[in-house]
Amino acid sequence: MFRKDNAMKVATYLLAGILILGLIGAAVKLLVILAIAGVIIGFIVNPRETIGMIALLVD
């Protein structure tokens, strides 16, 4: 009985770790999409300022 409890505990921790890594990956993906969308919207609304900000970041 003791081994079964430990195996379940380890499986639970592994599943929780995988879920947490998945949530972190989804959050990073969302941030990248928002950053790209912000640059595209910046080019549409005010292209000169957007190009200047990108030049400052690259420099």
Describe the structure.
The structure is a single chain. This protein has one domain (2-58). It contains two helices and no strands. The protein is an all-alpha fold and 59 residues long. Helix 1 (2-45) packs across helix 2. Helix content is 95%, strand content 0%. It has helices at residues 2-45, 47-58. The model has no long low-confidence stretch (mean pLDDT 90). The longest helix has 44 residues, at 2-45.
Observed structural traits:
single chain, 59 residues, mainly alpha, 0% strand
Identify the quaternary structure here.
single chain
Instruction: Give the distance, in angstroms, between the N- and C-terminal Cα atoms.
Output: 63 Å
Approximately what portion of the residues adopt beta-strand conformation? Answer: under 5%
Tell me, rounded to a whole number, the average pLDDT.
90
Element pattern in H and E: HH
Q: Could you list the spans in which at least 5 consecutive residues all have pLDDT below 50? A: none
**Cα radius of gyration in angstroms:** 22 Å
- The number of helical segments is 2
Proportion of helical residues:
over 70%
What is the number of E strands?
0
Please indicate the count of domains: 1
Tell me the overall shape.
Answer: rod-shaped
Q: Tell me the major beta sheet.
A: none
Helix-and-strand structural type: mainly alpha
